[in-house]
Every structure is written in structure tokens, then in C-alpha cells.
Here is the input.
Amino acid sequence: MYNTILVPHAGTSAGDKALKHAIHAAKSSLAEIILLHVVEEIPRPPMFALSTSESMKLAKSFRNANEDLKKGMISEMGKRVKICNENNIKASIIVTIGSAADEILKIIKKQKVDLVVMAKRRKLKGLKSLLTLGSVSRKIVENTACPVLLIDIE
Here is the structure.
């Protein structure tokens, strides 16, 4: 039924719960799992307030900090890949820098994802749950054609 399952993961227990559901779905359809972590870009101060050399140094520092965060999350996601492999599921890691919702949508298209399994933050019933989804969950549900499985974290 599914070939590629995307699990956006923030390195949290909520993401681990979503991963468990993805592993179950992958086992029944022999799908591959892609673990995605998006490093939110560190906001920069306005560059017009700094000299050119200060601006260049600061930009380099921000790039280095983002890359360090990215490397750390690759290592952290490696632990989750091991869990997938122990369950005989092929898994890979993608770590990007940017806006979470935008990056998730890009990966869905680029990797031809069949199913997204992700944690949701709010626990409400019925229509209220759709009206109050977190901003990332809402944007994914509204802007992709593939099925999205939202996992309650409570």
C-alpha cells in the first residue's frame, strides 16, 4: 500500500510515538521510512545595524551554529534508524535547515512520499481538533495530497 513513509521528528518522545506507528505501517506494506528533522534557522539581527565585516562574521557564526545543530540531529536520528533496522525496515535520515512546514512539504514532493506520520500537539475532539491543529500539522494537512496520520501525544 505504501512505499515511502515520512516521519517528521523533532528528537522528542512525541516523534518516537509517531515513529512506532510508522514502523507498524511500514511492516505491513514493506515501505521505507524517511526520518526528517528540520533545524529551524536561527533568526538574525538586521544587517544594516552592523558594519560589513561584522555582518559577514555574524552570518558565518549563524551558518556554523545551524550546521552544528544539523550534525547533532543527524547523530540523534541515527538512533531511530537503528530501531527501524532492528524491525527489518529500511530507513534513511534527512536533516534540513528552514521552516518546518515548508521543508516537510518539499520532502513530500521530492521523495514521492505516500504517507506522513507525525505527532500532533493539541488533544481536542471532533471538528475542534481540525480547527486547532498546530501550525505545522495544519499546513501539512492542507497542502499535501498524500495521507497524513496525526498521532496524539497524550
Remarks:
- Helices lie at 13-29, 52-86, 100-110, 127-131, 135-143.
- The chain has a mean pLDDT of 87.
- Residues 4 and 113 are 5 Å apart (CA to CA).
- Residues 52-86 form the longest helix (35 residues).
